[in-house]
Every structure is written in structure tokens, then in C-alpha cells.
Design a protein that fits this description.
about 280 residues; alpha+beta; six-stranded antiparallel β-sheet; four-stranded antiparallel β-sheet; 7 helices
Length: about 280
Amino acid sequence: MKLRFPLVLAAAALAAPALAQFEAPQPSPKATLTQRVGLTDVTISYSRPSVKGRVIWGELVPFDKVWRTGANSATTITFSDDVTVEGQKLAAGTYSVFTIPGKAEWTVIFNNDAKLWGETDYDAAKDALRVKAKPQVSEMRETLSIGFPTVGTTSAVLAITWEKIRVPVTVGVDVDSKLRKATAAAETAAWQAPMITARYWFDQKTNREEAWKLLEKSIATNRNYVNVSRKARVLADEGKIAEAVKAGEEALALAKADPSKPNVTAFEKTVAEWKAKAK
């Protein structure tokens, strides 16, 4: 029987894509995490080695030498906006993450070359930022973890945790500038944008003068239950109870006339409490 060479080539060509897509489980599986901090998205991509009974610090990962901070290709981190790391500025973009572990102090490195395999390709001349961090004792963590154990509105703790060591750094974001730009860019007829920004600043107890101006702008654009009731709550927070009652009653009247019929049960109770205080 003669072997038909063209058919063999065709079969091989069909098999090639399938083989290219085939992979077995990796000993250090890949992980990707995206965390929003304030209004900034931070995405981390890394491979997760496990302890497997080995001595990690000082042996598998030597002290005082550059480490890829993971396995396989370099760990990367992407910031959608400019941030600060330990108070130092770092521009938006994607960086590879390297560290220099030490017994008493680590160096955390953000390198501009995000397509590296391991430590041998690392070039310190391409570092965008280096910060110092203090290692902490943690509970046993079999598999390397890089993530955000604490997330706030303007900052978050980014922690590298493996074996019994945790290394945290603080990432700061600029919420106020983004809010100002977004509010300024909103349509003139839109009452929601200034209202949302004002509410955030009141809740955070920052930029109060700006917040008041934006709240009044929202009310002037479209006077409704949402923004007038917020004004009443702010007045009450400032101890201006009589004014809060007046604004609260107006807000309830606006709600009654609103075709959408917002639920005001809790707010009615709040206004009643203010009235009792005002007597």
C-alpha cells in the first residue's frame, strides 16, 4: 500500500493548531487579579509557586539578590492611572515586578520592561521605581500570593505573601482629580455628576467648600428629592438642625410629587428626629 504524502502533510497541518493549544497543568499556575482602588484599576499577573517542603528564604530565594517574585515569566502589574507607591510617584502603565529580599528589609522594584522571563534578563537601568518595605511575620502560606488585603478609597495595601513572610507596600491613588475632571466634563444639564462628587467629599470629610458648591449646582440644575435630602443631611451633620428640618420637609414634598415615588420611610423618621431636637 502506497503512503499518500499530501494526505500526511494535511493531517499534520490539522494537528498542529491542536498541539499548539494543548498544555498540561503547571506546577506554578498563572493567576490574574484586578482590583479597583478609588477610581484606578490595578491588574496583577503572576505565577504561583508552592513551598513543597522546601526552605524558601535564604535558600530557594536567596537574600540580597534580585528575585522575579514568582515563577515562569516575570510578574507584571498594570495601573490605569498615575499612582504613588510608598509615597513615590509612578506613572500609569505596565511594569514587571522584581524584589530584592532581605532579612530586615526588602526592595520592591517596578521595571519598565514588562516582557521578561526571569532574573537573568532583568536590567536595573530600566527600573521606573524602587521602594523599601519591611517584611512581616505571617501565617503559613503554602502558595505565593500577591494581592490587596486592605483596600480603601484613596489607597490600598499591596502585599507579597509566601511561606511565613508578608511584605506590604502602600499604593495611593488620586481620586479628587479624577472626580473634578469627570464632573467638569459632565453635561451642563446633568445634576447627577455634581451630586455624586459632592456626596463622596461630604462622606470623606474633605473638600467641603467644593462639595457645597457642587451640591448647590446639582439642586439648581434639577431640584429633586435626592439632592435636597442630601442637603438636609449635611446641614444636620453641621448642627444646623432648623435648616435641616426645612430642607428635609422640602425633600419629602418633592418625593411626594415625584412620579417614581421614591421610598422615603427611613428619611421621614430622620426628619421627625430632627424636629424633636429642634423643639
